Amino acid sequence: MAAYELSARGAEMQQRGQLNGAVSAFADALALHPTADRRFLLGMALEENGEPRRAVEMYELACQSSDSDAILRHDAAIKLADLWANDLGDVERAIRYVDAAMAEEGYEHSTFSNSAAFDQKAFYLAEQGKLIEAIGLWDAAIEGTEEVELVTSKNMEGEAVSRAVARSHLGRFFRAVAKVLLGRNQEAETDFAALPVECQYMVDSWKYIAAAHYPQEQRLLQGVQQNGRQEVGRLFTGPYTILEEALASARPDGLVCEFGVFHGKSIRILASMVGPQGSVDGFDTFEGIPEAWGDDPAGTYTAASEIPPVPDNVRFHVGLFSDTLPGYVASLESPEDLPVRLINVDCDLYQGTVEILHHMANRIGPGCVICFDEYLMTQTWPEDEYKAFQEACTKFGWEYEYLSFSLFSKQAVVRITASES
Q1: Transmembrane region positions (predicted)?
Q2: Is pLDDT at 223 greater than 50 in this prediction?
Q3: Are 290 and 320 in contact (CB under 8 A)?
Q4: CA distances for 416 relative to 178, 322, 337, angstroms
Q5: Could you point out which of 319, 337, 387, 400 has its C-alpha 20 to 30 Å from the C-alpha of 23?
Q6: Measured between alpha carbons, how far is 258 from 316 in angstroms, rounded to an integer?
Q7: 131 contacts 232 by C-beta, under 8 angstroms
Q8: Which CATH number fits domain 3-170: 2.40.50.140, 1.25.40.10, 2.40.30.170, 3.90.640.10?
Q9: 68 pLDDT band (50/70/90 cuts)?
């Protein structure tokens, strides 16, 4: 089969969610006829398949290829920035890649592309605690996006306009949060008030965090200094750092489990963190969510029944939680001998979270850390993982403390401090 046919097959498989097959097809095409474009395509498939380090390698090779052009190098740099910040936990390197994209000679830098890069870099600076600099970039991003909407919306595809509008709303929201952290409350309220009603869930998420769960004397655990910098970033942090700190804050022994594996990105992170002497149990149907969630129909987030490639210290339990969990917990040592160290809940749904917490309840005790992947920042968050956890706390007599939130990644991390279960 010719390289172009293999590339076409890879694209079809990627479209169907068959990412293992897509990666294989793109790799075969690249072996037959190495080009910058084929390296880029393989990088995208690897990224979607939750293999960030291999994706980074491909994007970097694409940039270094003699046949690469300015557009490819710009786009690859933007993707590399996202991978390093959110999947590999190196924000400083991510900033360098955004800067490289912005400086790419020969690329036709537009108000639209620049506003997206400004927005991306603003998140990275905010994670580092450089709030004043981040606000300046959000100012530029919002201004640029609004200019694009006014001037070119008639000539842009509807999806592109929608993305620009959504990014503008998110930028305004996060800019407002940064202003609150700096004590610029009146300015922040103006930004919050300017958001449309469909963004109220963002404001409600922030109000929940700010009003009830962050000690004021620690300035929302952000350590904001007089010069506008933060010692530790939380609200703008990506998934890698959240998981890293969650595991470090948990008891030193016990089960590490993930519920909702998808393509395996976060379970690979956990597997690397526990090391070869540890293990991670992953639970998923690999066929998508079993029921509708918000605007997403049943079957969304499917891995097309493909089991993702993972390290040897990962064990999969394939099926619905209600089918796999009873046998799993029955096979374990006593709860006293084998408690839960960390649970990563990434199933999104209320019912799935209820089942997880019910079956694992007698192993969840002081020192257990639970990371919720969609706890906040969705249209239905008060009815999903958040609700299931609050009900479980009442049912099982759990007391807990919040360790961190990320409005950016929608995650929340809790540590159980007392339990009657």
Answers
A1: none
A2: no
A3: yes
A4: 29, 24, 18
A5: 319
A6: 10
A7: no
A8: 1.25.40.10
A9: very high
